[in-house]
Each structure stands twice: as structure tokens, then as C-alpha cells.
Amino acid sequence: MLKNFSDLEELRSKTTYLSEEILLKNTPEILWPFISNTDIVNFEIGLNPSEYSFENHSQGGTRMFVKSKEMGMKIVYEELPFEWLAPSYLAVERIFSQGPLKYLRFEAKLKSLETETQVKLTLAFVPLLPVFVVSKVLENTMHKMIKLYQEIDDKASHRAEINASVFLEDPALYQEKINTL
User: Fold this and answer.
1) HEC-encoded secondary structure of 73-125
2) With the C-alpha atoms ordered 175, 138, 79, 71, is the resulting torsion angle positive or negative?
3) Would the pTM of this model clear 0.85, i.e. be above it?
4) pLDDT at residue 162 above 70?
């Protein structure tokens, strides 16, 4: 886990980047409640539920630790506080103690253009496994996110009033997803 800021700076200096951009029809204000709901997004793209634990930080505040399992591999990481500027930017960094990565940073930037919204997704990572293996898995995950964002955009375009239930056929299924999280 992260011991000091210089360790984080060292990880950041060793990153490999993956980035994708898409254009969506709706405004950042309409898209934001759905894109920023990372628990639902993670569930919808097939990531497994996570277990969270919290620890008081000696210098004040709280540290969050997460355990999960992906592709049969146990994953443990510290999640740093989200960076958040609604409705245009979110980012999160993770420092791994178990799994295929040492470090991961995810960013989503929404930029209003004249008639559409540009969404740029960036993954910065430091792998433990060979970079080509990790890149392939992360590219696949990013493509699932883009497909989900496009589905959200299409459904939002056909609704005058937007709420979370618009993306789920059955309210009971929605409740089941929440319970799973």
C-alpha cells in the first residue's frame, strides 16, 4: 500500500496509457448522473462486486481499501479519493497490493461541443504482468464502457425526464443490482 507521496509520484512516472474518445448526443449535464455512478457502471460492464474496508489515517481522514476478484485473480488495492468536477471530470487512482497491476488511474472527461458531448476515457496503469496482456484486458473493459455510454446516450435521447430506472427494464432487477453492490 501507499506509504508516502513520493511512492505515488514514482508509480505515476512509469505509467502506460490507453485512451478512447466518443461523441454523444446529450449534454454533459444529462450524461453526468449516469457516467459518474461508478458502482452501476462497473456492474453493467461485468466487473465483480467489491468489498470495502476503511481505516483511519494517522494524519486525519480515512483510507479506503478494496478487495475483489476478476478473471479468477484476487485483487486488493487502496483507492485514493475521487477527483470530481461535475459535470465534466472524474478520476480515481488505485494502488494495488495484489492483482495484475501496481497502479491504475481512470479518468473520464466530458466536454460540451456545439451539438454534442465529447467523452474522453483514459486509463493510466503500471502492470505486474506483461504490458501486452494487461493492455488487452483494459482495452476490452474500456470498449465495454464506451458501449454502455452509447446505450445511455441513446436511451437518454428518447426521454424527457431522466432517472436511473430509464436504464433498467424491471425495477426489481434494479433493486437486485443495488443489493449486489
Assistant:
1) EEEEEEECCCEEECCCEEEEEEEEEECCEEEEEEEEEEEECCCCEEEEEEEEE
2) positive
3) no
4) no
